[in-house]
Amino acid sequence: MKLSSTRVFTLAKTSLCLALFSGAVAGCKPSENATASAAAPSTSASAAAATGKDIPLADPTIFFHDGTYYLYGTGNPNGFKVYTSKDLKAWQGPVGNRDGFAFKKGDGFGNSKFWAPQVFRYNNQFYMAYVADEGIALATSDSPLGPFINPEKKAIEAPVRQIDPFLFVDDDGKKYLYHVRVADGGNRMYVAEMNDDLKTIKMKTLKMCIEPPNPGKTPIKTPGL
Predict the structure, then answer these.
(1) C-alpha angle with apex 38: 200 to 178, nearest 5 degrees?
(2) Phi, psi dihedral angles at 169 (to 5 degrees)
């Protein structure tokens, strides 16, 4: 399999938001911790297979560990499958430990709308932050191949719908959850510091970092008009 998108190994999902919060990005660099799960743009991408078939994925994210790249994304109603590569060109899979899935429906929170996974390593354990039923949850595993488990089957509590998570661990040990909140007729990006249990956020730290300039009424100029 060959990767057809050249942009899947970027931090585009959070780059604009991080730029607005310099204190949270002082130590940001690719590694095996939470900064390593390079979330790609939330647009459809596909990894081309040697057989000529494609692996369609939206919200692609790549995690690097021990010489292997792991590719996850949105695209299956039953969870998240995982593919592996040594060179970001030839891909194998799905190779998840749960019938090809790294996270499978029933192993944690959610019944539908499995979107936008992020995988990272923290304290010698692998984590997956993901969306299900328009809520954000975290699951853990001993391997990037899964199975990722959320035994409580609970999402992070919030008064609104939440999607598109990205968890960042700073050099001082503080943890920040960047995510989109769906409320007031639009989507806006927020950041909040997380508690050390990685299950709850510190509500007093919640801040909006990106919003549309005029939600629902943004003019678009057409060339020639």
Answers:
(1) 30
(2) -105, 120
What is each CA distance from 61 to 82, 84, 212, 218, in whole angstroms? 10, 12, 24, 29
Considering all CA atoms of the chain, what is the largest pairwise distance in Å, rounded to the nearest integer?
A: 57
Tokens 């660099």 belong to 29
The separation between the first and the last C-alpha atoms of the chain, rounded to the nearest angstrom, is: 43
Q: What is the pTM of this model?
A: 0.74
Q: Are 176 and 149 in contact (CB under 8 A)?
A: no
Domain boundaries, position 76: 2-210
Tokens (6 digits) for 180: 């989109």
β-pairing, 54-65 vs 161-169, is unpaired
SS3 state of residue 133: coil
Q: Is residue 204 included in any domain, yes or no?
A: yes
pLDDT tens per residue across span 8-19: 333 334 333 433
- CATH number of the domain residue 194 falls in: 2.115.10.20
C-alpha span between 179 and 174 (Å, rounded): 16
